[in-house]
Amino acid sequence: MNIRQAVVNHRNDQVVAAVDSGVIGTIFSMFTNEGMLNWLDGLGHFILFPLAAGLSFIRLGFAFRQAQLENYNRGIVVKTIVELVSTLAIATAVGGGIAGSILASTVFALASPIIFTAVLGAKALFHLGTAAYFLGKSNVPGIDNARKTRYRRTMVGHLKGAFILALSTVAVGLVMLAAQPIFAWLGLGAAVLGVGISVHNAYKAHRQANQLAQPVAPAPAHQLVLAPAPAMARRAPVRARAVASAPAQGVRARVVVPAPVRAVAPAPAPADAAATVRLVAPARARAAVAPSPIARRDYGNLLNQSPDLAPVRSPSTETTRHGLFTRRRAQIAPQAAPVKPSAFIL
């Protein structure tokens, strides 16, 4: 599941929900003034109600997309089915209302507000039942605090939706069925609450999407822990630096140690690759010490005192086994095929 895409889809759905609540609030506001009510009975009837139905279809599309992004989770699928049924019912009510206006039919004109009231009431009951379900899940014995907090937050969100839909149901029933326009203010207040909650949810989802879009910090590099031998560090304070890499996992290990050195702790190595580090004395140390036979002899004696880094006998290093030109190998983890270092920095 792509979490960021799911969060972005939820953000877009909440933006459309805020616009939908605004349209419903506009419809209720028309009942507070006689002139605006006359416009709603005429031209406004063919603008605002189809707009509300179109926004419901847009939200239905977001619901299907959310179900797909969340791998058809059972809860999301149930919510999508509820949105599908309510959208089809609203479209039927809008179509019936327009047909009643064109045909001057009392049956269609009466059926539309009944369908609206039934749809809003059913959605309010759905949110109320979902809130009760998450309340029960949060009180299961032995549940951890993180899941309990998440269930409680989901429960609160559904309670908010149930409260707003309940107010809208009462307002539609009293205003459109009982012909009590004074209760239009109740529906207008519910619409304002819906706009505020939807905008808040969209803002939170937008921030979460931005956080998920931030690049992930790289994993910490593996470090080889080395320490100088006390006697060797006093007489030969030569510093060498090497860089090794483990291509199988893309992890680099950087080592900065004084040379000659002795290993005092094993280094963490990748599970499926071995890294090899070669320590080579810099050229400035060779220029400073190599010309002196006494210095060469003392340095060779110091190397003999450190068995951890004994010279490697090979055709390329045999002639200078006790000199500063000697190469030494420290194997981090014995594997079948050691990995060649990608670069050396001296």
Order of helices and strands: HHHHHHHEHEEEEHHE
Any low-confidence stretches, pLDDT <50, length ≥5? 223-227, 231-267, 269-346
Portion in beta strands: 5-15%
Gross morphology is elongated
What do these coordinates show?
The chain is mainly α and 346 residues long. Helix content is 60%, strand content 9%. The protein contains ten helices and six strands. It has helices at residues 3-29, 34-41, 48-69, 74-103, 106-138, 145-177, 184-213, 230-235, 283-289, 293-304; strands spanning 226-227, 238-246, 251-259, 262-263, 276-279, 328-331. A two-stranded antiparallel ribbon has the order 1-4. Strands 2-3 form a two-stranded antiparallel sheet. A two-stranded antiparallel sheet has the order 5-6. A hairpin with a 4-residue loop joins strand 2 and strand 3 (251-259). Helix 1 (3-29) runs antiparallel to helix 3 (48-69). The longest helix is centred in the middle third of the chain and has 33 residues, at 106-138. The radius of gyration is 37 Å and the shape is elongated. It starts with a helix and ends in a 15-residue tail after the last strand. The model is unreliable at 223-227, 231-267 and 269-346 (pLDDT under 50).
Topology summary:
Layout (H helix, E strand, L loop, with lengths): L2 H27 L4 H8 L6 H22 L4 H30 L2 H33 L6 H33 L6 H30 L12 E2 L2 H6 L2 E9 L4 E9 L2 E2 L12 E4 L3 H7 L3 H12 L23 E4 L15
Antiparallel strand pairs: 1-4, 2-3, 5-6
Helix pairs in contact: 1-3, 1-7, 3-4, 4-5, 5-6, 6-7
